[in-house]
Amino acid sequence: MRRVCKPFAFTLVELLVVIAIIGILVGLLLPAVQAAREAARRTQCVNNMKQLALAMHNYHDTYGVFPALGVRTINVPARAWHFYSWAMMILPYIEQRNLYDDVMVAMRENSVPAPWTNWPRWNRDLPPYMCPSDIAPPDRSKSPALLNYKACVGDDYLQNHLTPNDPKVPGIVNRGIFQPERWVSMSYISDGTSNTVMLGEMVVGGRPGELPGGVALNMQTPSPAGCMARIDPNNPRMLTPPVQDSSRPVGGRAWYGLPNFTGFATMVPPNGPSCLFTLDGAEFMGTASSRHPGGVNIAMADGSVRFISQTIDTGDQAATDVQNPGSRPSPWGVWGALGSCSGGEAVSLP
Amino acid sequence: MLNVIVSKTAQKIFLACFLVVAGGCGSSGPELAPVSGKVTMDGKALANVLVTFTPVGGGTSSSAVTDQEGRYTLSCHLGQGALVGQHRVSIHSQAPHASGQAVVPDEDDPSYQPDPYASIRAPAFEEKIPARYNTKSELLREVKRGKNVIDLELTSQP
Fold first, then answer.
1. To probe the interface with A, which of B5, B13, B21, B77 has the most A CB atoms within 10 Å?
2. For A347, which of A158, A288, A290, A337 could close a Cys bridge (C-beta 3.0–4.6 Å)?
3. Does residue A264 contact residue A204 with C-beta atoms inside 8 Å?
4. For range A310-320, the mean pLDDT
5. Pure H helices in B24-127
6. How far is CA A143 from CA A138, A149, A157, A230, A252, in A?
7. Confidence tier at B141 by pLDDT (50, 70, 90)
């Protein structure tokens, strides 16, 4: 038998091969596209951080000092812990003078609410305070404004929420640039402005207890290793309970000037867990974190923005924090030394 | 017949491409190996102590807290286990914690006051584990590729 005319058509196998080839090509292309998108978001994130570092410098040019981590309006017992953050004080330098003036008027009239209140005037997310790589937290009931960029309190955490004039423990001085009600000038940074961290990024918080961004409560040992041990060994993306609940996402309160919402410490390596000493927690071992692959961005006090790998040397993590760290050199390696502003260890980044 | 040959070749090409793509997905970073074991002091299990493995050449350390039987499983933010290589091991007691598993207070309650002096009021505790196992540790252990079981047998007398 002879075939006269073969009908022109694809066989099933040919079709499958074509589909497979297209599938492979898409499979190769898609990660590249996603990586390019993330690179663009990271560039935006770095740009925001640079703008905030410049705003800090402009504030310094105006007042001769960097802003304090937080300030109180009136020292009355019921509001003793209502600190208003550095993120509020630099608003005029990121073209948000209207919001700043609104709040200052309310402060003069003594009608400003607690910094975690969803007050309509400040209930807004400002794009310069947000990293586009991050995702918003699910619960915004007590989170008036998101903040991805945190001020560095140095490589210590016990009492880093107290002011230098605290009535019970006066004379507490943080090892970093920022502390509530302490304003330092650039000349105070004796390790050098290019060797000292000013700002770092932190994810605003996903599901409670999930890394990055999760906060473990009730830490037992004041060492970074004690915080790292809160990672669940059976599921290294989660922390063991108790953890901070969803109504207090760590980056949800831009106007709250205490380390647990607007500060971080350089003790646990980047993208590690954060920990609170107590349940309600003022004493916060905050850890830089991001959704960029492999590390976090930080801004040094000279305004330069650098990328820090999550495998940076963190020294002896089992070394405990001490109540008055004074001028001891940082036990937590390069990362700890970068956080202290006058620790006597001027470590430069490679 | 031609179809069969084509499909066989196509299968081979497809398989090769798949392997290349799948092989490219391996994570590139420092190598971790799972580490677990038991901590004992003079033969008795040490519960609720903090075990930390710090690489001798610097780098990311891994830590864990022992359970009631003294068992631990290391992890760090990079994943389960510890970096492959030589480590300095330290074992610290954990402070008994005052506030326990209480309910987190409501900060909108007008009478609410956070506890800013918790660490100052925390009772000082005595480290019962000798300093040669923690602050002046000379305990070296090697983490090898593959699964590691590292039992730490401490003695109270040198």
1. B77
2. A337
3. no
4. 92
5. 118-121
6. 10, 15, 23, 25, 4
7. very high
* The pLDDT of residue B64: 95
- pLDDT tens string B78-112: 999 999 999 999 999 987 665 455 567 777 777 77
Cα B62 from Cα B42, distance rounded (Å): 25
Closest CA to A236 of A272, A184, A203: A272
B residues 76-115 closer than 8 Å to A (CB):
76-80, 90, 92, 94-95, 97, 99-105, 107-108, 110, 113-115
- Per CB-CB distance under 8 Å, the chain A contacts of B61 are 225, 228, 314, 316-318
Stretch among A86-95, A100-109, B85-94, B103-112 having the lowest mean pLDDT: B103-112
- The CA distance from A66 to A90, in Å, is 10
Token duo for residue B87: 């480590």
A interface mutation test: which of B13, B18, B104 has the most A CBs within 10 A?
A: B104
CA–CA separation, A237 vs A232, rounded Å?
7
Q: Which two tokens stand for residue A53?
A: 């570092």
Going from the C-alpha of B97 to that of each of A56, A219, A276, A342, B117, the distances in angstroms are 39, 8, 12, 32, 14
Is residue A143 helix, strand or coil?
Answer: coil
Residues in chain A: 350
- State the complex-level ipTM: 0.86
Domains of chain B, first to last = 30-95+122-158 (2.60.40.10)
Task: Please tell me the distance from the alpha carbon of residue B134 to that of residue B138, in angstroms, as a whole number.
Answer: 8
pLDDT in tens, A11-36: 999 999 999 999 999 999 999 999 99
> Encoding tokens for residue A290?
């991001």
C-alpha A145/C-alpha A116 separation (Å) is 9
CA distance B4 to chain A (A): 9
- Answer with the residue of higher pLDDT: B45 or B123: B45
Contacts of A21 by beta carbon, 8 Å cutoff, 6+ apart: none
- List pLDDT tens digits, range A150-190: 999 999 888 888 889 888 888 888 899 999 999 999 999 98
**A-interface mutation test, from B18, B51, B63, most A Cβ less than 10 A away:** B63
Interchain contact A281–B (C-beta under 8 A) = yes
Q: At which residue do the structure tokens 């793509």 appear?
A: B21
Is-contact B10 A20, C-beta < 8 A?
yes
Closest CA to A221 of A123, A120, A319: A319
